[in-house]
Design brief:
The chain is built from 1 helix and 10 strands. By secondary structure, it is mostly beta strands. It has one domain. Strands 1-10-4-8-7 form a 5-stranded antiparallel sheet, with no helix packed on it.
Length: about 170
């Protein structure tokens, strides 16, 4: 009698992860390639997005959809890239309102970026919302289950004082 091959079929689990950054209480204009974070010299964990996406340390994830909500309405010209890293770059590399200064070695931990364009915002009751569909694989660093997002301003931008940005990411755990 022939032996049957056994196959284990797993169903990927859909996950939604969300985190927020509240910027400084000022309306200082950003330039192209400036970082947006929560501090001028030493951003904290609240200065970048932490997205728990993997089911195990060093696990994989497939991102499918992103939504970025900002509490300031009427900033239709806002354009951002959210750079997704498997580890957090040095704290001094993404000081608020300073040109991003990530080292070459740190850029190697950047697995992808998500662009939010100037013309893609939809005004909602108390802010602006933009959604982006972008599908790509992501592997968390050994010993970690998170993706880390740093906001890079892509066009001159004047924010609201204390403006809050919330990133929601959806996808499937591998």
């Amino acid at each position: 009698m022939a032996q049957l091959d056994s196959t284990i079929v797993s169903t990927p689990r859909m996950v939604m992860a969300q985190d927020s950054i509240t910027r400084l209480a000022n309306a200082t204009q950003y330039g192209v390639n400036d970082a947006l974070s929560n501090h001028e010299t030493t951003p904290t964990v609240a200065g970048y997005f932490t997205l728990p996406v993997a089911s195990r340390d060093g696990g994989g994830f497939t991102f499918t959809d992103f939504a970025l909500y900002k509490t300031d309405q009427d900033q239709a010209s806002a354009a951002f890239d959210v750079m997704l890293f498997d580890t957090v770059p040095a704290v001094t590399g993404f000081n608020d309102n300073a040109e991003i200064a990530i080292t070459d070695a740190e850029w190697l931990a950047c697995q992808e970026y998500v662009p939010f364009s100037a013309g893609g915002w939809r005004n909602v009751v108390s802010g602006d919302l933009q959604t982006v569909r972008k599908v790509f694989g992501f592997v968390c660093a050994a010993g970690d289950v998170n993706a880390y997002g740093i906001v890079v301003v892509k066009a001159t931008y004047t924010p609201a004082s204390g403006e809050k940005l919330t990133l929601t990411a959806k996808g499937y755990q591998d």
